[in-house]
């Protein structure tokens, strides 16, 4: 493979401390990376999207100045061991156990990008406690319904073929460089040549780092058969949604509908970008997270007991707001 393309955020990344660690979670190894100062008073646990690994959230981590950011490779992706079955219940059990193994409490902010937004939302709905849930490019609506249903069906066929064909052919299809590049081009919105070259290089390097064909097929099925709206009624912590103006996977009206269903949600729409906020516009995304973290102090308890007996949906959307992030992006040559 060719030498890596220089990141637009190279100097910021070089100035950000990073440590690679691993831990046993239910008998399987999860690799994770800690960014930022080890003695930071605030921690963010960040979960990346489908077919990616921790590299995808490095730029947001670097922009969260002064915060310790923990980014694991999802089981079955990057270098983490796969789960026996990659369904949503297994991902929830893994994240909950990983959170506990690291000794994280409710003060740790939980963040998820894309497929990671489903994993973290399901986990919080199941009882994982956090003072703030952050969803970047959240999957806010079902992928098997509406205008994306046909494309989703085609993608299901692609992953199924990759899993059932003879191994050399199946892996060749799943890791085909041309197909990966088409996916990358479809998601990119930036016209900056340097940015485009770097994002394509990131996908070329890390988009095919999965443990086996079964894991990637099961994870894809999980990603398209679940969405954040499925868990909205059971999420009772403050939520920051960072959506994108031109996201082809979940449009802004669907993001607004999800925000209205959540008990306490703020929706920030980043202009001029699509599903790759974490690559193309990490600075405004991180700025929104830092601002909301400052405005969301730790709570004495989860608060679910205090709301016991409240009718479903009572008070929902009472604090939902929508703001627009700045399109200005600072890059370091």
Architecture blueprint of SSEs:
Blueprint: H1 10-14, E1 18-25, E2 28-35, E3 43-47, H2 58-63, E4 68-72, H3 88-101, E5 109-113, H4 115-125, E6 133-136, H5 149-164, H6 167-174, H7 177-187, H8 193-206, H9 213-225, E7 239-244, H10 252-261, E8 265-270, H11 277-280, H12 282-295, E9 321-324
Parallel strand pairs: 3-4, 3-5, 5-6, 6-7, 7-8, 8-9
Antiparallel strand pairs: 1-2, 2-4
Helix pairs in contact: 3-4, 5-6, 5-9, 7-8
Organism: Curtobacterium citreum
Region (Disordered): 295-333
Protein name: Alpha/beta hydrolase
What is the overall pLDDT average?
88
Strand order of the largest sheet: 1-2-4-3-5-6-7-8-9
Class computed from helices, strands and strand pairing: alpha/beta
Instruction: Please give the number of β-strands.
Output: 9
Rg (C-alpha, Å) = 19 Å
At the fold tier of CATH, the topology name is Rossmann fold
Give the fraction of residues assigned to helices: 25-40%
Distance between the termini: 23 Å
CATH class: Alpha Beta
Report the principal-axis shape. globular
Helix run count: 12
CATH homologous superfamily label: Alpha/Beta hydrolase fold, catalytic domain
Low-confidence region ranges? 303-321, 326-333
Binned strand content = 15-25%
CATH architecture: 3-Layer(aba) Sandwich
- Biggest pleated-sheet summary: 9 strands, mixed
- The figure for the number of domains is 1
The string of secondary-structure elements, in order, is HEEEHEHEHEHHHHHEHEHHE
């Amino acid at each position: 493979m060719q030498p890596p393309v220089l990141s637009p955020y190279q100097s910021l990344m070089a100035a950000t401390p990073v440590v690679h660690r691993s831990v046993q979670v239910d008998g399987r190894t999860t690799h994770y990376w800690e960014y930022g100062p080890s003695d930071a008073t605030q921690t963010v646990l960040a979960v990346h999207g489908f077919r990616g690994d921790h590299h995808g959230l490095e730029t947001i981590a670097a922009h969260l100045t002064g915060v310790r950011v923990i980014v694991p490779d999802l089981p079955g992706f990057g270098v983490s061991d796969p789960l026996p079955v990659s369904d949503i219940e297994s991902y929830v059990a893994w994240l909950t156990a990983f959170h506990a193994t690291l000794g994280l409490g409710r003060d740790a902010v939980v963040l998820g990008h894309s497929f990671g937004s489903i994993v973290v939302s399901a986990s919080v709905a199941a009882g994982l406690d956090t003072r703030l849930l952050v969803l970047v490019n959240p999957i806010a609506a079902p992928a098997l319904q509406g205008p994306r249903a046909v494309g989703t069906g085609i993608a299901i066929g692609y992953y199924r073929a990759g899993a059932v064909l003879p191994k050399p052919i199946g892996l060749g299809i799943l890791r085909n460089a041309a197909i990966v590049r088409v996916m990358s081009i479809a998601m990119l919105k930036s016209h900056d040549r340097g940015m485009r070259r770097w994002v394509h290089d990131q996908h070329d390097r890390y988009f095919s780092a999965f443990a086996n064909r079964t894991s990637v097929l099961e994870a894809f099925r999980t990603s398209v058969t679940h969405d954040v709206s499925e868990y909205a009624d059971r999420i009772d912590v403050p939520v920051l949604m960072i959506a994108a103006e031109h996201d082809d996977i979940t449009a802004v009206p669907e993001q607004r509908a999800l925000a209205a269903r959540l008990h306490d949600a703020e929706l920030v729409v980043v202009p001029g970008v699509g599903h790759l906020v974490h690559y193309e516009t990490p600075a405004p995304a991180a700025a929104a997270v830092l601002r909301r973290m400052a405005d969301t102090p730790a709570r004495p308890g989860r608060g679910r007991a205090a709301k016991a007996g409240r009718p479903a949906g009572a008070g929902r959307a009472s604090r939902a707001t929508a703001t627009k992030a700045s399109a200005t992006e600072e890059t370091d040559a």
